[in-house]
Each structure stands twice: as structure tokens, then as C-alpha cells.
Amino acid sequence: MKQYIDLFKTLSDETRLRIMVLLSEKELCVCQIEAALDLPQTKVSRHLTVLRYAGLAKDRRDGLWVYYSLAEPKNKVEENLFECFRECLRKEKSFRADLTNMKKCIARPLEVIAEMVRKS
Predict the structure, then answer these.
(1) Among 33, 52, 94, 99, which is 20 to 30 Å from 68 by CA?
(2) What is the pLDDT of residues 45-82, one digit of tens each?
């Protein structure tokens, strides 16, 4: 029971939920998440750490870049939640705006996105 309580506590934060919806679409670099959500790097990194610690997201390093994606679901509940991120929440107005921003970001080179978020 505690694992489910912890899972839903982790997802009860708006920023983490927004990040999960983005990651349900594709693997993203931290700077792409920052730009898509228009949030500072410190806030994005803090929430990504919480998601990673909860086992919902995983990271990989590629040179200077750190990429995040959804972790493999550990049980049927997580599997259903991840499916909900992909199919249900993405249709909500606020999440659609994030996804639109994300698509603009991934169309640009990472160096451009990183410079853009560094200046904001």
C-alpha cells in the first residue's frame, strides 16, 4: 500500500505531472524540458530528481547532455498511469500547450535551446 501512496504523492505536484506528460512523448534533454515548461533549470532538475528517485523516470548522459525518459513500469498501476499520460492527459488544454512548446524545442539543435534557456 505504501508504494502506491508514495507514487501518487510524487505525481500530486503539477510540475512533475507536466514533466511526466512530456516524457510520455519522447526522451528529452533537461534544457528541452526547461524550455517547454518555461521553468528554471533548478526547479526542473529538482523535480526530475524526485521522479527518478521514485523510479518513474530514468536518465542517461551523452557528453554534456543529460536525457530523461519514462522508466519501465514496475507494475500494472504504473503501466496504466503511463498510458494515461500518453492518451488522456495530453488532450487537456494545459498539457497541450506544454506539448506544443516541446515540439518547437525538439525542432531546434540542443545548443540553441541551451543558450536560449540560459539567457532567460
Answers:
(1) 94
(2) 999 999 999 999 999 999 989 999 999 999 998 899 88
Which residue segment(s) compose the domain that 77 sits in? 2-114
Identify whether the C-beta of residue 113 lies closer than 8 Å to the C-beta of residue 105. yes
CATH number for the domain including 33?
1.10.10.10
Instruction: Please report, in angstroms and rounded to a whole number, the separation of the first and last CA atoms in the chain.
Output: 42
Three cell numbers, residue 72: 519501465
Within-domain flag for 120 = no
The owner of cell 498539457 is 95
Q: Find, among 84, 64, 71, the residue nearest to 27 by Cα.
A: 71
In a domain, 59, yes or no: yes
Let me know if residue 81 belongs to a domain: yes
Answer yes or no: is 119 within a domain: no
State the residue for C-alpha cell 524526485.
50
State the number of CA atoms in the 13 A half-sphere of 108 facing the CB: 17
**How many domains are there within the chain?**
1
Residue type, 26: K
Residues pairing with 62 in the sheet: 65
